[in-house]
Amino acid sequence: MEGDPALQLRVFDLNCWAIRYLSKRRQERIRLIGDQLCREGFDLVLLQEIWSEQDYSDLKAKLGDCCPFSHYFRSGVIGSGLCVFSKFPILDTLLYQYSLNGYPYMLQHGDWFCGKSVGLVQGGSQPLCPPFFQLHAEYCREKDAYLPHRIVQAWELAQFIRHTAKAADVVLLGGDLNMHPEDVGIRLLRGWTGLQDTFTEAKRFEGCEDGCTLIPSNCFTFKSELQPFPLGIRIDYVLYKAVSSFTVECEELRTTTGTAPGTDIPYSDHEAVMATLHIQRKRQAASVTRGMAGPALAEVLSEALTEVHVGLLAARWQRYSSGRMAVLALLLLLLQAVAVLGMLAGLAAGQPFPKLSFSLLAFLAVAVLLLAAGLHLFHSIEVKMLQGTEEQMRMAMRVLQEHP
Amino acid sequence: MEGDPALQLRVFDLNCWAIRYLSKRRQERIRLIGDQLCREGFDLVLLQEIWSEQDYSDLKAKLGDCCPFSHYFRSGVIGSGLCVFSKFPILDTLLYQYSLNGYPYMLQHGDWFCGKSVGLVQGGSQPLCPPFFQLHAEYCREKDAYLPHRIVQAWELAQFIRHTAKAADVVLLGGDLNMHPEDVGIRLLRGWTGLQDTFTEAKRFEGCEDGCTLIPSNCFTFKSELQPFPLGIRIDYVLYKAVSSFTVECEELRTTTGTAPGTDIPYSDHEAVMATLHIQRKRQAASVTRGMAGPALAEVLSEALTEVHVGLLAARWQRYSSGRMAVLALLLLLLQAVAVLGMLAGLAAGQPFPKLSFSLLAFLAVAVLLLAAGLHLFHSIEVKMLQGTEEQMRMAMRVLQEHP
């Protein structure tokens, strides 16, 4: 790079929706994605929701020539689903798991089992340090029980980027953030890190209207979920930032628009985001790219704080109510034990309880006790984590006010 | 600092062993620790195992004058137990929870519930970025089932420090690492980060022989555990590193030696470590402090890799055996269901099973099923995490060999 004044970096980002047995025409789509990546020859490929290691291995074999370096991030029960392919050597990786990640009993959503996380990849001889990640999935904007968790994740992601990217030349962040551009989580992330959005900064744009990445014309999307948004929604991003003596410009941004060329199906239920970045070394080191102005940032922070506090109140209530349920189940069990002991001691005249319903009741009480204790444990962790985030945000607010 | 050429930084580090209802004479010891800190006026106080927020609040009230800035790190069910008090403003904090942290069913150890983690604290106007943390507790060196987990934690800690400390001027790491100086985890941590040990570098040392921090003469330590080590063991450390245009020297290191002055009890079952560091700005920015030489580091890495691999094999076996147990319990339940259905359909002549033992058996099968399924889930996560660490270490090894 010293002798070469500029680098053109072509980035591909896609949420592949490759869940074994569940995602439609998965293997066919993975093959299509691999073919497309081979044809176009991107420098950096960021994929999400590659849940099966077999799919990763297939892609790795296919991309061996154009992107010889790759990494698959492991975490949670099923994995993180994150993988990265690169033309440049990958020197180091780091995985950061979000502390809150949905609820284990929301089995139909499955987020808790995935171990949602952000994976950091450090590029080598090229002066690039691109972290890459995915935030918590959004299910229903109307009554969003996950909102505080997603704000905690946006905050943790922003903090992770701030702390790890200090010595990087260029920071790239690609992934399915599951938040609209105007949502408080995105504004917090962008304001707190100074990351810029390729969609708003690109000199040329080609693709779905408004840069949407979840569109009604894609045959795999749920039409009912997109009803309030006739154009679709934009939730997949490529964000960037030049940290030290470099400048980054987005020359072009493209998205896919439904079906893949030459076939009747799209690559995924999401559209791919393809950005061409122009990275150049500056003659003089200049001041670091600033995020939002102080007052605007303070406003976003206070909005996020409110949401986290609402989540904290809900989590406290759930902790209390699951604890109460556990105590009630324990009392019932004790009562039954006393009854049995009384019977054994011959205090009761005859057998007042039918044996079967008595043991069924005990069985139920034990099940409720175990379940409620587990929930109590889980919500206790949730309360601690929300409290911790609230405190960190308050500290950030104080620092902002003292050093605007 | 620009006008002031040097800074003397006095650091206090102690594992306080302050577990509510369990630790002996806890409130008295917390009072003693607070008094001692007020008297001595340290610049930075790193405390571990402060499990009760009430103890933290008491210390905070007491230290308000000498260390006006403080932070308590929240995580896990009970908390992280980590807190920091500082003379300098704390501008930012970050908590990183280790991905592996003992086993939830080892209730007597309790590690899983604590959420062991590393807390990062970023100092403000002073050019200091001291992370501060505690590693997994060691219980029995003879048959150490936790060893792979502790190596994973040492590796994650080293990676966390490498990635977050790049832009820091000075890195300080204090805490109870629960590893002896010659253990592979410590060698890995020091080699991979370049951190230096205050005990070996100090110009003056005063305290327990060999710098031990868990000594037989402390009335709270378990004598039987220390039997193989007549002098005691050194498991609490203050490590440091100057990253950019600064030099750090350790002028003095002290440890407490059993009972606190003027009383008949020690501050804790651990001895406190007190370091005086001399931090100076260099005239010219020099090269970054290097860790171990390449070949020595590669040797440590390969030793750690072996241990992680052993842990991986054990975790895979446990995952398999808990899965098999869950399947067996499920089969038993199905068999019982078939028997009940058969009976209801009138296929069986009369009632062949005594009702009570039949329902007790069903109850047992459900309990075993739930337990085994939970264990299977847990060991699946363990396998993923050990695999991920193994891969990261192999990548580091490759990079070391290619760029020695």
Automatic annotation (TrEMBL), chains A, B:
Transmembrane domains' residue ranges: 326-350, 356-378
- Top-rank taxon, per record: Eukaryota
Q: Is Magnesium among this UniProt entry's keywords?
A: yes
**What compartments host this protein?**
Membrane
Pathways per UniProt = Lipid metabolism; sphingolipid metabolism; Sphingolipid metabolism
One GO CC annotation: membrane
Upper classification of the source organism reads: Eukaryota, Metazoa, Chordata, Craniata, Vertebrata
Q: Which family does it belong to?
A: Belongs to the neutral sphingomyelinase family.
Q: Which keywords appear in this protein's UniProt record, sorted alphabetically?
A: Hydrolase, Lipid metabolism, Magnesium, Membrane, Metal-binding, Sphingolipid metabolism, Transmembrane, Transmembrane helix
- Answer yes or no on keyword Cell membrane: no
Pfam families hit by this protein: Exo_endo_phos (PF03372)
In the Enzyme Commission scheme, what number(s) does this protein have? 3.1.4.12
Q: Which GO terms describe its biological process?
A: sphingolipid metabolic process
Protein's recorded name: sphingomyelin phosphodiesterase
Per its UniProt entry, what is the enzyme's top EC class, as one word? hydrolase
Q: Where is the Endonuclease/exonuclease/phosphatase domain?
A: 15-270
Q: Name one GO molecular function term.
A: metal ion binding
Q: How does it sit in the membrane?
A: Multi-pass membrane protein
| Gene name tied to this protein | Smpd2
